[in-house]
Amino acid sequence: MTTTPSDKPTASGDTSQSTLGPGSAGPQDAPPAKGVARSAAEVSHFAPPRLSMRWWPVFLRNLLVWRKLAVPSLVGNIAEPLMWLIAFGYGMGALVGQVNMGTPDGTVAVPYILFLASGSICMSAMNAASFEALYSAFSRMHVQKTWDGIMNAPVSLDDVVLAEMLWAGFKALFTVTAILGVMLALGISHSPKLLLAWPVLLGAGITFSCIALVFNALAQGYDFFTYYFTLFLTPMMFLSGVFFPREQLPLVLRHVSDWLPLTNAVELVRPLFMDQWPAQPWLHAVVLLAYAVAAFWLALGLTRRRFGK
Question: Confidence band (pLDDT; 50, 70, 90) for 191?
């Protein structure tokens, strides 16, 4: 085995470079500096995702655990949006009456409860996915150390993060399906186009689960999530046209609102409630997809760094 000068001095005790043989290591073979090694590690953390079908057992594990708490979980997820719908839809709706909305066919007067329902169901998808990808995922990752136990099996961290993202999206879809059933029972909308709202709401749930996993990777405790809800989700609820038309916003905020993920979800779902087709559906879908891909990649890189993978 070739040794460095410090490993094997010569018989005379001279360890200078002049006594090295042609196969010996020289200064150019010295290990990289700590800064270089750290930079390489950072790059590897944000390497492309290495995914496989091994995410499915992790997803199934979450499903089996959740089945024991399905009823209280469902009640908790749909109670708040239904309260919003009843209080504002019927209460304030009686005062507001109808809302004038711009559509490709011109300005249309829409009952306020229909306007609110089509926006609040997107907000419900956002909240359900965010709660699952924040509080529940953080408990499994940091508090209960479930992720560490899973990775003792031949399952990579990338697959665990993918499973958590898809699981949060599924929870959001399950929640909005229950809420949509109540809305149909109340006669708010009976448009057959609502069938297309399911994949849109699933996509919205996945998008917000990816964003939430970024904060999950950064959090050191549950209190950290307050920043996410207070500084990101709450302003977005009021800027995305859930409670009132975005035309009422100042022009600057209107331009900011155009690129928010919740806005693009609402712009896709609301026309379906009105039995119309969305304007520029591909643009809204691409915005949601871009948020999902970028946020998942960032969340995965930050989680790898947290676990030292």
Answer: confident
pLDDT digit string, tens, across residues 212-268:
999 999 999 999 999 999 999 999 999 999 998 898 899 999 999 999 999 999 999
Please tell me the distance from the alpha carbon of residue 183 to that of residue 89, in angstroms, as a whole number.
11
Task: Say if 178 falls within a structural domain.
Answer: yes
Number of domains present in the structure of the chain: 1
Residue 205 and residue 173 in contact, taking contact as beta carbons nearer than 8 Å: yes
Domain that residue 213 falls in: 57-307
159 is a domain residue:
yes
Q: What local confidence, expressed as pLDDT, does residue 9 receive?
A: 38
Distance CA 19, CA 4 (A): 11
Q: Note whether residue 51 is domain-resident.
A: no
Which ranges of the chain would DSSP assign to H, the alpha helix?
Answer: 34-45, 55-67, 70-84, 93-96, 112-131, 137-138, 146-150, 157-185, 197-218, 225-228, 234-239, 251-257, 261-273, 281-307
